[in-house]
């Protein structure tokens, strides 16, 4: 295929070409140009392409071209890993079939009323788009029959494998006609996916689009090396300092973190909302719609919940929590830079996560640039510039006659200078995002970190050999190491009480993991932990913000909320601290007892006889009846308990 190929050259029916012209599509993407002719010819397809390459149209257009619109029974089944993607694919079918009469597409996914879906299935639909679990439910109920199926599409098969749906997918495939046409699309091609393709596809045409370079090349990738606990402070600074930020998806690992972080951002004046699997489907759809129409600017989401989101406004993807694998990272940043648009991806990397950073660079085949955290002065300057531009736009676009009269009235009635009134209005207009950014005193960034922390993490090369190093500095003693470990913000560690202890089965490792993962606190800022029966104490920085304490209160260990709070003075006095070290001071001199001095006899235990010990007791004197001899065996002597020894040696 050449660059001059258009959709009109692909032998698509006129109604589909008209729909493509309506939305402004003229030239197919590489995946579309490669797949559409094969699918129109009836071949199976094994396609490897990243998200955002246009693969939905690559299978939707030829499937629509081969439909029998007079038959309302299911003819094409599309399986997707998430409900968001199912809705998106169904909307794409509806868009491309705009000029097809009597066309019906039905999305089936969990979270929607089963009664509604049963009613829609009874009306009939030529194309079914669904998640594996809900499709299985309808097949088992008998409400969905696939005996008339002529085409089947597995979209984002690697994601279905990662989410554990691959067995469900194979079960569904076994309940479809053997003569169907099948198209399998995946961003990556692990062995399990190839096994499914080998078993269920018939001589497929393989299409491989190197979208990692085309998609990722349109995305600016940067990372910030996390210092301390102020990830939230860093996030707000980045959101304020990015010049071309229109809308952003912020990725975190847990459902709890989505709501916690979204609430914190909203409290700081950002139009933010959470998106996770625990939300009702109606609420999830409303969040995405608000992101599209501009009511929301930031969505905090998990990997699963964000699958299938295609919103043109998304200019930035921020990996607040680093993903567990490189495939998840590629899927994440695919939410921006789609269909030729530019995008930006920012990754928060803790020092211990530098190895994953290198793996991501290898997967995307691009170096990821380190950035310094924007200073508070830069953030304040950016906010002031945005405020000035907002004022200028308002002066040019709005009729301000009434408001001029209000200001003139204030000037005349109270003899106030107009500049003072304007300053007061600017103060009121800043709301939750002050134009002057105050110093929080917490955390480090690359620009302000001590010289000791400027050096990059030491790399290791293959075969476990480290790179050669120069002369080492003298190793600090233990007190210096402890002192550095406790250096957090203002430097003080205080003892906190948490409502979980030995009786709940808690361990120090679990407590550290919960605090580090949920609170974003590095292990070096977590001090001594002491377990008691029904509670424990842990040393944490004295400068922990209240919002972080609120998050840790709800964090759970062994199904129990930590309910963390600082120890009171009375509790600290009654709760033993860690045992003092021997080198903490001079130990009192111990008196040596003379060698021949003995304790008073009345305090001694009674002298024990040697045969009181089990191994010194004499054998019992009582005789017992011998065991009846087996056939061919000599009888045992009466009273003896030792077996006969064999004379022959083996």
TrEMBL record:
<dbReference type="InterPro" id="IPR000629">
    <property type="entry name" value="RNA-helicase_DEAD-box_CS"/>
</dbReference>
<dbReference type="GO" id="GO:0005840">
    <property type="term" value="C:ribosome"/>
</dbReference>
<dbReference type="Pfam" id="PF25399">
    <property type="entry name" value="DeaD_dimer"/>
</dbReference>
<dbReference type="InterPro" id="IPR034415">
    <property type="entry name" value="CsdA_RRM"/>
</dbReference>
<keyword id="KW-0963">Cytoplasm</keyword>
<feature type="compositionally biased region" description="Basic and acidic residues">
    <location>
        <begin position="582"/>
        <end position="624"/>
    </location>
</feature>
<feature type="domain" description="Helicase C-terminal">
    <location>
        <begin position="231"/>
        <end position="379"/>
    </location>
</feature>
<dbReference type="GO" id="GO:0033592">
    <property type="term" value="F:RNA strand annealing activity"/>
</dbReference>
<dbReference type="InterPro" id="IPR044742">
    <property type="entry name" value="DEAD/DEAH_RhlB"/>
</dbReference>
<comment type="function">
    <text>DEAD-box RNA helicase involved in various cellular processes at low temperature, including ribosome biogenesis, mRNA degradation and translation initiation.</text>
</comment>
<dbReference type="InterPro" id="IPR050547">
    <property type="entry name" value="DEAD_box_RNA_helicases"/>
</dbReference>
<dbReference type="GO" id="GO:0016887">
    <property type="term" value="F:ATP hydrolysis activity"/>
</dbReference>
<feature type="compositionally biased region" description="Basic and acidic residues">
    <location>
        <begin position="450"/>
        <end position="480"/>
    </location>
</feature>
<dbReference type="InterPro" id="IPR001650">
    <property type="entry name" value="Helicase_C-like"/>
</dbReference>
<keyword id="KW-0346">Stress response</keyword>
<dbReference type="GO" id="GO:0006401">
    <property type="term" value="P:RNA catabolic process"/>
</dbReference>
<keyword id="KW-0347">Helicase</keyword>
<comment type="similarity">
    <text>Belongs to the DEAD box helicase family. DeaD/CsdA subfamily.</text>
</comment>
<keyword id="KW-0694">RNA-binding</keyword>
<dbReference type="InterPro" id="IPR014014">
    <property type="entry name" value="RNA_helicase_DEAD_Q_motif"/>
</dbReference>
<dbReference type="InterPro" id="IPR011545">
    <property type="entry name" value="DEAD/DEAH_box_helicase_dom"/>
</dbReference>
<feature type="region of interest" description="Disordered">
    <location>
        <begin position="439"/>
        <end position="480"/>
    </location>
</feature>
<dbReference type="InterPro" id="IPR057325">
    <property type="entry name" value="DeaD_dimer"/>
</dbReference>
<feature type="short sequence motif" description="Q motif">
    <location>
        <begin position="5"/>
        <end position="33"/>
    </location>
</feature>
<keyword id="KW-0378">Hydrolase</keyword>
<dbReference type="GO" id="GO:0003724">
    <property type="term" value="F:RNA helicase activity"/>
</dbReference>
<protein>
    <recommendedName>
        <fullName>ATP-dependent RNA helicase DeaD</fullName>
        <ecNumber>3.6.4.13</ecNumber>
    </recommendedName>
</protein>
<dbReference type="GO" id="GO:0005829">
    <property type="term" value="C:cytosol"/>
</dbReference>
<feature type="domain" description="DEAD-box RNA helicase Q">
    <location>
        <begin position="5"/>
        <end position="33"/>
    </location>
</feature>
<dbReference type="InterPro" id="IPR014001">
    <property type="entry name" value="Helicase_ATP-bd"/>
</dbReference>
<dbReference type="InterPro" id="IPR005580">
    <property type="entry name" value="DbpA/CsdA_RNA-bd_dom"/>
</dbReference>
<dbReference type="Pfam" id="PF00271">
    <property type="entry name" value="Helicase_C"/>
</dbReference>
<keyword id="KW-0067">ATP-binding</keyword>
<keyword id="KW-0547">Nucleotide-binding</keyword>
<dbReference type="InterPro" id="IPR028618">
    <property type="entry name" value="DEAD_helicase_DeaD"/>
</dbReference>
<dbReference type="Pfam" id="PF03880">
    <property type="entry name" value="DbpA"/>
</dbReference>
<dbReference type="Pfam" id="PF00270">
    <property type="entry name" value="DEAD"/>
</dbReference>
<feature type="region of interest" description="Disordered">
    <location>
        <begin position="570"/>
        <end position="650"/>
    </location>
</feature>
<feature type="domain" description="Helicase ATP-binding">
    <location>
        <begin position="36"/>
        <end position="207"/>
    </location>
</feature>
<dbReference type="InterPro" id="IPR027417">
    <property type="entry name" value="P-loop_NTPase"/>
</dbReference>
<dbReference type="GO" id="GO:0000027">
    <property type="term" value="P:ribosomal large subunit assembly"/>
</dbReference>
<dbReference type="InterPro" id="IPR012677">
    <property type="entry name" value="Nucleotide-bd_a/b_plait_sf"/>
</dbReference>
């Amino acid at each position: 295929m050449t660059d001059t190929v258009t959709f009109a050259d692909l032998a698509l029916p006129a109604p589909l070409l008209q729909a493509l012209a309506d939305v402004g599509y003229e030239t197919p993407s590489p995946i579309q140009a490669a797949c559409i002719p094969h699918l129109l010819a009836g071949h199976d397809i094994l396609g490897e392409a990243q998200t955002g390459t246009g693969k939905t149209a690559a299978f939707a257009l030829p499937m629509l071209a081969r439909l029998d619109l007079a038959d309302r029974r299911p003819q094409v089944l599309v399986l997707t890993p998430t409900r968001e993607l199912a809705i998106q694919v169904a909307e794409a079918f509806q868009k491309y079939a705009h000029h097809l009469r009597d066309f019906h597409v039905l999305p089936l996914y969990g979270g929607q009323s089963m009664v509604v879906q049963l009613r829609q299935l009874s009306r009939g639909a030529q194309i079914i788009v669904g998640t594996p679990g809900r499709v299985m439910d309808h097949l088992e109920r008998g409400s969905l029959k696939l005996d008339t199926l002529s085409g089947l599409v597995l979209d984002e098969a690697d994601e279905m494998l990662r989410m554990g749906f691959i067995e469900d997918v194979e079960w569904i495939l076994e309940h479809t006609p053997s003569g169907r046409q099948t198209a399998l699309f995946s961003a990556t091609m692990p062995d399990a996916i190839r096994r499914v393709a080998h078993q269920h596809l018939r001589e497929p045409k393989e299409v491989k689009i190197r979208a990692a370079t085309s998609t990722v090349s349109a995305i600016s990738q940067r990372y910030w090396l996390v210092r301390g606990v102020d990830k939230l402070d860093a996030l707000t600074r980045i959101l304020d300092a990015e010049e071309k930020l229109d809308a952003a998806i912020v990725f975190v690992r847990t459902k709890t973190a989505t709501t916690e972080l979204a609430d914190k951002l909203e409290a700081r004046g950002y139009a933010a909302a959470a998106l996770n699997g625990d939300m009702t489907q109606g609420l999830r759809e409303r969040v995405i719609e608000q992101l599209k129409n501009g009511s929301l600017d930031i969505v905090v989401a998990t990997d699963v919940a964000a699958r299938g989101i295609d919103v043109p406004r998304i200019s930035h993807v921020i990996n607040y929590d680093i993903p567990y694998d490189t495939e998840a990272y590629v899927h994440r940043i695919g939410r921006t830079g789609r269909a030729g648009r530019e995008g930006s991806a920012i990754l928060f990397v803790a020092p211990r996560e530098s190895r994953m950073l290198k793996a991501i660079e290898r997967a995307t085949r691009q170096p990821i640039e380190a950035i310094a955290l924007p200073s508070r002065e830069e953030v304040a300057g950016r906010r002031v510039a945005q405020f000035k531009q907002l004022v200028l736009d308002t002066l040019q676009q709005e009729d301000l006659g009434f408001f001029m009269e209000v200001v003139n009235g204030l000037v005349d009635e109270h003899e106030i200078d107009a500049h003072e009134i304007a300053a007061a209005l600017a103060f009121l207009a800043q709301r939750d995002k002050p134009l002057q950014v105050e110093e929080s005193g917490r955390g480090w960034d690359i620009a302000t970190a001590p010289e000791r922390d400027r050096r990059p993490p030491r790399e290791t090369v293959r075969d476990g050999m480290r790179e050669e190093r120069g002369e080492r500095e003298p190793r600090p003693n233990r007190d210096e190491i402890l002192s550095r470990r406790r250096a957090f913000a203002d430097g003080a560690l205080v003892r906190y009480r948490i409502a979980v202890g030995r009786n709940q089965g808690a361990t120090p490792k679990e407590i550290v993991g919960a605090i580090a993962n949920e609170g974003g606190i590095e292990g070096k800022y977590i001090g001594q932990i002491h377990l008691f029966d029904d509670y424990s104490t842990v040393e944490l920085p004295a400068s922990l913000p209240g919002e972080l304490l609120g998050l840790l209160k709800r964090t759970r260990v062994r199904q129990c909320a930590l309910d963390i709070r600082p120890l009171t003075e009375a509790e600290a006095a009654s709760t033993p601290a860690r045992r003092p070290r021997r080198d903490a001071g001079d130990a009192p001199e111990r008196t040596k007892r003379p060698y021949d001095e003995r304790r008073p006899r009345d305090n001694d235990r009674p002298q024990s006889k040697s045969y009181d010990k089990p191994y010194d007791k004499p054998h019992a004197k009582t005789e017992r009846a011998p065991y009846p001899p087996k056939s061919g065996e000599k009888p045992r002597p009466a009273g003896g308990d030792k077996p006969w020894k064999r004379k022959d040696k083996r």
